[in-house]
Amino acid sequence: AQTVTQSQPEMSVQEAETVTLSCTYDTSESDYYLFWYKQPPSRQMILVIRQEAYKQQNATENRFSVNFQKAAKSFSLKISDSQLGDAAMYFCAYAAQYSGGGADGLTFGKGTHLIIQP
Amino acid sequence: DADVTQTPRNRITKTGKRIMLECSQTKGHDRMYWYRQDPGLGLRLIYYSFDVKDINKGEISDGYSVSRQAQAKFSLSLESAIPNQTALYFCATSDPGTSGQETQYFGPGTRLLVL
Question: Cβ separation of A102 and B102 shorter than 8 Å?
Answer without folding.
Answer: yes
